[in-house]
Write a structure and sequence with these properties.
By secondary structure, the protein is mostly beta strands. Helix content is 5%, strand content 48%. Strands 1, 4, 5, 16, 17 and 18 form a six-stranded antiparallel beta sheet that branches. It is globular, with a radius of gyration of 21 Å.
């Protein structure tokens, strides 16, 4: 599946970026004149407008190549929301969206750094290192940042990881009893179509985790909680059948790109 390209700097988009949610309501008028009003969740869409100013020739060419490949509005591509957390169920590590090693024990309802009880205690009761991971259908040659809040009630480390076919990035971090948001910069540089992001625990480790996030950019932004929808839009389309580009120089281009995803 083709994907909307990332900028050469590793940024997900040039700002300003506008995101708009579009919903539809179905109104059924009955014979007696009364009406029944229902939401139509299958028609919900999200729209983005990227005002990309100052693109290099290579950056503009990558967008134009994708536009030609999918024939404008006709074909679909993967778009990674510049505002979004790419993960599903970012606080529910026991949800089927996540994969845990066999002897990883999860206890939700633990106090979190935001003053609520949405964190999860994770215990590795096995005789080998274990992990909690989620696989995303995203390009392996993009830059990403993986982040999560973590602390321990014992002497434990966590290992943040991003793995794809042919390569991986890892970082082992010593924890304390205080909440800390830990980060992993990911630059795998491989032409693959999925990446596994996760947190690994040593044998016997006891760690509290909260709010895991993956972003298609360098550096972490404010945490965004996700539920059944993450920031990966596998059926995105261009909103128009033409792109208008303004050349400001031999290596300087401005273009406004509109994208819709459901």
């Amino acid at each position: 599946m083709p994907a909307f390209p990332q900028l050469a700097t590793g940024a997900s988009a040039l700002y300003p970026v506008t995101r708009r949610n579009v919903t539809r309501t179905v109104v059924n008028t009955l014979g007696d004149g009364s009406t029944v009003v229902l939401a139509d969740p299958d028609a919900a869409m999200r729209e983005w407008e990227l005002q990309a100013s100052g693109l290099t020739l290579n950056e503009w060419a990558a967008i134009d190549t994708l536009f030609q490949t999918v024939a404008g509005r006709f074909g679909t591509f993967t778009f990674l929301d510049p505002f979004g957390n790419l993960l599903l169920r970012s606080e529910e590590f026991g949800d089927p969206a996540w994969n845990s090693s066999p002897l990883i024990q999860l206890t939700p309802g633990v106090s979190d750094p935001l003053g609520t009880t949405r964190a999860t205690q994770v215990v590795n009761a096995g005789s080998a290192a274990g992990a909690v991971t989620q696989t995303l259908a995203v390009p392996g040659n993009f830059r990403y940042t993986l982040s999560v809040w973590a602390k321990t009630t014992s002497v434990s480390n966590v290992t943040l990881s991003a793995t794809t076919s042919g390569g991986s990035a890892t970082r082992s971090i010593a924890l304390t009893s205080q909440w800390r948001r830990v980060l992993l910069d990911v630059d795998l540089g491989l032409n693959t179509e999925s990446v596994v992001f996760g947190v690994g625990l040593d044998v016997g480790a006891i760690v509290d985790l909260f709010g895991m996030q993956v972003e298609a950019q360098i550096g972490a932004s404010d945490y965004k909680k996700t539920e059944s929808n993450g920031g990966v839009y596998a059926q995105a389309r261009f909103a128009e059948d033409e792109l208008t580009v303004t050349a400001k120089g031999t290596d300087l281009f401005n273009v406004t790109v509109r994208i819709v995803g459901s």
